[in-house]
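Re: weekly structure request thread

Next one in the queue (199 aa):
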Amino acid sequence: MTHTDTHQSIMARFDISYAPLAPEHFSGVISLGNKVQGDNYLTQALLADYYAKSFVGDINASWVALNRGKVVGFRLTFAHTQWQFDKWCTPSLWPDMIEHVCYFKCNTVDPAMQGEGIGSELLRKSISCAKAQGADAGLAHIWLASPNNSAFKYFTKNGGQLIKKHANKWRYASIHEGYDCPVCSGYCECEGAEMLLSF
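Done, posted below.
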């Protein structure tokens, strides 16, 4: 069975459609994101900022998956011109030919629909748009405490290469921004994997 056949089978089974992120999806994205990633992982203000960072011109690199109009997955991607490196980024370890890097901020799929290729399809759509925007790679910080380390396995399967592991990646957010990590009993101590996916 080809990728297209598999994708069409999944769409028929769950009635999945895909669309660029738009303001009418915000409430569904926030609800799903906080359900899966932890309370206050997303807020209206944060998502509005992320949405603005998704664009170069009229090309939007962030996407949602919909099941009969309900958000069941999303991929938030910052255009390569819309974000800056921080202490969690290690450009000195990136391949020399990498020049324009978008940022894969977050990928989330409803647990009831995981394992059906929705996350990978969202990634493909974001990559296509990021390339059209001028990016030649994408960076992500992968949550290594996801159930069965599924986030790392998913991103690796799709071509992501581990650059460096960072301790306490989301600790600041848990202390200062109200983020409630779903696996840590106190302030978040989760490790994040800096990963690069070349296009």
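The beta strands are 16-20, 55-56, 59-60, 63-67, 70-78, 101-109, 137-143, 161-166, 192-198. The chain has a mean pLDDT of 92.
Next request, please.
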